[in-house]
What we know:
Order of helices and strands of chain B: HEEEHEEHEHHHEHEHEEHH
CATH superfamily of chain B: P-loop containing nucleotide triphosphate hydrolases
Shape of chain A: flat
Helix content of chain B: 25-40%
Shape of chain B: globular
Mean pLDDT of chain B: 91
Strand order of the largest sheet of chain B: 6-7-8-3-9-10
Largest interface: A-C, 39 and 41 residues
Structural class of chain A: mainly alpha
Number of domains of chain B: 1
Low-confidence stretches of chain B: 1-8
Structural class of chain B: alpha/beta
Number of strands of chain A: 0
Number of strands of chain B: 10
CATH topology of chain A: MetI-like fold
Largest sheet of chain B: 6 strands, mixed
Number of helices of chain B: 10
Mean pLDDT of chain A: 88
Oligomer: heterotrimer
Strand content of chain A: under 5%
CATH architecture of chain A: Orthogonal Bundle
Strand content of chain B: 15-25%
Number of domains of chain A: 1
CATH superfamily of chain A: MetI-like
CATH topology of chain B: Rossmann fold
Radius of gyration of chain A: 21 Å
Radius of gyration of chain B: 18 Å
Amino acid sequence: MSNWEILWQARDEFLIGFWRTLEIFGLSIAGAFLIGCGLLYLLEGSRKRLTMPLRIFIDAMRMLPFLILVYLLYYGLPSVGIRLDAWWTGVGALAVYHGTYFAEIFRSNRLTFPPGQIEAAKAHGFTKSKMFFRLILPQVIMQTRPLLGNQLIYALKDTAFLVIITVRELTAVANSLSSTYFIPTEAFIVVIGFYWALSVAMEIIIKQCGRFSAKRGFDNV
Amino acid sequence: MSEANTSETAAVSIRHLSKSFDDVEVLRDVELEVKTGEVVTIIGSSGSGKSTLLRCINWLEKPDRGSIHIAGQRIGVHDDGRAMPVRELAKVRAKTGMVFQGFNLWPHLNVLHNVTEAPIHVQGKSKREAEALAKALLDKVGMSHKHDSYPNTLSGGQKQRVAIARALAMQPTVMLFDEPTSALDPELVGEVLAVIKDLSAEGYTMVMVTHEMAFARAVSDQVVFLEKGLIIERADPETFFTTPKTDRVRKFLENHDTPSPA
Amino acid sequence: MNASAWQMLLEGAWTTVWISAVSIAIGVLAGLVIALIRLARIPIVDQLLVLYISVARATPLVTLALFIFLSAPDLGLDFNRSVAGILALTLNTTAFNAEIWRSAFRNFSREQREAAMATGMTPWITFRRIMLPQMVITSLPGLINEMSFLIKGSPAIAVIGIVDLTRVTNRISAVTYEPLPPILVAGALYMMVIGCLIWLQRIFERRANRLAM
């Protein structure tokens, strides 16, 4: 039996790993997106005392390796009495980590807004939150689309770190198959192919979204 | 053999030069001879092919047909039609100095090093020799107080004067000026023209594309009018500006400020 | 944390620093070489390089490190862990650096190149004396940014058993039963290194902007 045939028989395991990775990725980027928007809202808000600590938190996250955050949550939190399982640790760490990156992308785009727009909205009697959700957020998201797309690909790649805290995702599957059947080369080629296909698919989707926002005059690429 | 003879004596000799971009003929069978010490001005409306003609002389544009000799040496291709190897081409190019509309100084080098870069790395001059020459040339163009400045701190007129010194530093057979004052603010045009005028008085061989009619009249030995890639008139400046032969040139001069002799 | 814990931590930090430094040095140069080869647009070679860059950018470092370390014997190669780790980091960062160099090439001003040729410089001298010095200045902010990414990704090599600054926190807590302090110290050390890189990046961004004026 050739190595590739062995792999074919183990296809279910690959698919499970692929599905798990997708699940972790999907949940965590949804979380990251919400965290990013939330941080932007808080930075936007009137509570000036919050601005400084938030900026420090965002910058700190961006200077930290993702795996250190994972260690902090997985090995560090139990010593203060909070215990999460590996899977939720992974999803949570990804969401928080990439949420701060999203927030930074949003924030630097927000700085480029012409002040006149906001003043016009105020003059029309928009409330703060209405202005944020109807005016600021949609524009920020449309304009930062290419950067968000890049960040999604980084987030996808970071899911593989979770193999280190024993999450059974795609890379973990390749790892265990290669040690069970001694076919590391083939197993990893398949898995790398999966990651690659996902990234290419995301790039294509982001480009397609570009057409939509170009129609609305938002594209600055 | 007569052709070879004229090529030897002339600083630039252009024969049967033609060039097209896609389907548009920009140069049609152009013939031009620039003697040593002569100043030739090329005039024409935009799109007439004058910049292309100038850029063919140092092979920044490749003509489709015809030949160009610089001080008797052919540029770009050998007589048997073989393309010139890049090193050889570079050597012939070094006989020409070019001044561009947009200055094109190298922003990572200060003024002095912009001027010494080619003498050191193309001609193999020693640093000391190159710097002595560069200082003399920067003095000539009135930029001796700016040796250590970087290009982004200079005005357009200052940049162009440094660019002129940079081209002179290679001690070229002929200087090529491609609309040297077109990108300048009006109040800075004069300082650059004054430098070029000095050079002409010193006997430099120059070919110049310009829109400054009064200036062309004052410094040129020969004026050439290009229209749709064809030389339709050539004369000494007096004749050209006072009694043009063709209606086209007469119209052109009417639309520009008719220059009085400087 | 006692003295031996601190010493272990510093050893881990040293491992991270030297493996990252070697990978960065090779990756910056290899990226330049690939960018140059891609300029020549050699058929097949060019497509292969495009494929390499696309796959390398999409592959997680953990996966790449495991792949290299586990399948090297299959291919008749015998790497020790450090070499496999360096290879993984280098393969990854080279792909990003190649794109940074290439865009510096493509955005290089045609006018400046013409000015160089007009003074009689050969293409090689033009590249060495006029283009490369400026491309280094314009690419440095991007290259330094990529260096931060490499260091943030370097804990991936723990997966093949290299005891780097992240992995060493596990070793320490296995002895002290206090996981939090070493992780926090390691985090602080990473922040110091990456903070320095971000600061450098800002300085070079300013220099690059001055050049673009």
